[in-house]
Request: fold
Amino acid sequence: MKKLSLKGRDWKSILSQNKPVIVLLILIVAMSIMNDRFLTWSNALTVLRQTSINAVIATGLTFAILIGGIDLSVGSVLAICGAVSAKMVASGMNIFLVILLTLMLGLGMGMVNGLFISKGRLQPFIATLGTMTLLRGFTLVYTQGKPISIFGSETSAVYSKIGTGYFLGIPIPVYIMLFVFVIAYYILRHMKIGRYTYALGSNEEATMYSGIKTDNVKIFVYGISGFLSALAGIIVTSRLGSAQPTAGSGYELDAIAAVVIGGTSMAGGIGTIFGTAIGALIIGILNNALNLLQVSSYYQGVAKGIVILIAVLLDRKQRTSR
Amino acid sequence: MKKMKKALVLLLVLLLTVSIFGCGGNGDEGDNGDNGDGNGEDTAKKIGLVVSTLNNPFFVDLRDGAQAKATELGAELIILDSQDDAATELSNVEDLITQGVDLIMINPTDSDAVGSAVAAANGAGIPVVTLDRSANSGEVEAHIASDNVAGGKMAGDFIVAQLGGTGKVVELEGIPGASAARERGEGFNSALEGTEIEVVAKQTANFDRAEGLSVMENILQAQAEIDAVFAHNDEMALGALEAIKASGREILVVGFDATEDAVTSVQAGEMAATVQQLPKEIGGMGVDTAMKILAGESVDEYIPVELQLVTE
Reply:
């Protein structure tokens, strides 16, 4: 039984992985033809670095969407965690402590989302809409509406390396992104909790009756989403050298787009981290490409919207035709 | 396989759309510049303009002013929109560096956060000019902006004169911490110093019209006597005006920015005055200054753009 369903998932994921990859390749080829500066090493690094923030958030969201949920609070978690970490950095706290505390804060806030959804029986959309608004408000209160600079202590220089530094010629955020992908892939593919995540999204009741503590799975999943949002908050804050009270507004939309373009079903149960990685790259390249092609910003939204719709339509076609 | 084919067709349609937008976006000015390479000299200068947001008429005017000047001087202008997000702003500057522009004009979303973007341009050896909002770090060749403190003082002086030096006023503040809000407030309050005018309420309405309305409604409830309102921008002033009209009270309203709605309102005798910034001038002056820098001329670090009070 188990073996069969695993096999089925492989087949499905191979099919749903294919299309995003094709979209990505066509995008790259077309862009290389249309703009000679696109396919350069430095632009590739730029795109990867720009993508890293959305990719990290989208990875967390993949978990939430895989169980048939959603996390709208990612942008607000990013903002409050960024602000808290900036204040800790400015106060000269040890860098490892800053990172640890920030990530724990994000994890905690994510788990609170999970508690609302599991124990509180709230709709994920409503619960995270609530925390999204609440945490944005907290951020404004905490920062008093002003950006918090990370400079002014010994920790600052190290902290700012997280977002701006290079290792072997490749930006550090790119390593972080790859690391997050690998860990998330491992969790989903090779750990029990990963299988539970898929099971919960496919059929919640059956999962519950088979003795799995679904509440714990939910708390874990939203915890991951909060944790990764906090990580993205560290990257953003470090890149900008300051925490913005409005940071991350609307980031949930790009992240959801990345997950969905990557072939993850909003109904849950189907999807992969690989797909999300490709989805995030598509969004990142699209943002970069529209700028390089000097598309007026008014049209950029139109173009992005069309890509998202086409990607979802393709996905839907594939599902219904099966 | 059939499905694959369908997917490919859809994708080609998509690419076509993108490339059509690409050409449409360029419009008429993009193409004439680059082809000049064959003649040796006469290569048009490529200037990047990163605007904080193009959802606000003020910055649209700024862009239009810059575009008009660039066309006049024969420069190629690449315009990118940061959508009020500092991270997008940084990406935009990186994308401009990739395109190899000669100079980048930034209208920052935030004076602190723009530091990384300026540093990126500095690192690539591309000179930077800031427009309207300044950058708190990094190397900037010139900063071009309206003198917000002078504008706030202009509004304050006007209210002082209208009220004959005594009365009660309300100050509707912009987004807390935004430099425009700080500076306009500073100028306004400096004008009130030494007069009998008292600020009875001072609250933020985040530069937003709807908030201006509700905040003013609350203040009207709380304050029995109000002679004048100074709002840090016209949107809030117009919102406040609606609240005042509904209450039936006679209160002088002064705004800032001289948006089309506000000027119409002043002409109709509803708002008393608005301080006019000249965003087109800021944009135009930006390109002007950029060209001077690229020609090797020296320019002032701060170039103030004049303001004017619109009262009729």
Observations:
- Chain A touches chain B through 56 residues (CB under 8 Å).
- The longest strand of chain A covers residues 148-149.
